[in-house]
Amino acid sequence: MTRRLAPACLVFVYACTEAPEDGARDAPTAIVGGQVAAPGEWPTAVSSGRCDGTLVHPRLVITAAHCLARGGPVSFSLGEARDRAVRTAAVDRCVGHPDHERRKGADVAYCLLREAVDDVPIVPVLSACEAFEYLAPGATAILVGFGAAGEDEPGGGLKRWVAVPVHGTQAEAREVLVGTRDKGACTGDSGGPAYLALPDGTWRVFGVSSRMAPSTDLDPAEPCAGKAIYTSIPAHLVWIEESSGIDLTPFEERCPRAARPP
User: Fold this and answer.
1) What is the CATH topology of the domain spanning 128-234?
2) Over the stretch 111-122, which tens digit does the pLDDT of each residue have?
3) pTM for the full model?
4) Which CATH code for domain 38-122+238-244?
5) What radius of gyration, in Å, describes the C-alpha atoms of the chain?
């Protein structure tokens, strides 16, 4: 099982900082306690300058709905650093979830690209039945983002990744809680991905960085690391596919029938 997914890297340039008003802390923007990605690692994790995103199809990037608050990204950059993009991919249009302002767990959006990026290997999205079987407390998630490594740490803009535990879900499984006191997200990772390795060694992307969770057992509250809230992509696959017209679930038929959610 390897994290080095391809020799080419994608970076969507847009890391946002505004979060829904629900008592949570500011939107996450940096990876804490992890390491700088090597060339070619996590190539589908991208950044737009204000928010991050994930290339899940040659023509489609998933990001956070709150990243569209100021008009949305005009392009995404590909590479290991925001300001040293290997190349950029222009955006045709972005669409935020219609329930983002009204319901928890709807902080998700997609952006259609003007031209397909067809030379980067895509990590498939986690299907609903795979989430039901594998996205459980104790699973290990990989968070990827372009922010700084801590509240007062330099180096923002470099792609970093960190392995963290999954704690569970909330908001009727529309959100996933991840991270520890020393490892997790921070200001600047908004819209970025959370990945999960399946038992057969293949990878899926399941989450969109939304915001930091209110402080509970991780008191005192810190602006970086701690528990972070990621919007579940499987919970919104039907909307993304129907709204965008793009099929993102080619692996659905591989799920054991017993593992399918009711």
Assistant:
1) Thrombin, subunit H (2.40.10)
2) 999 999 999 999
3) 0.82
4) 2.40.10.10
5) 16
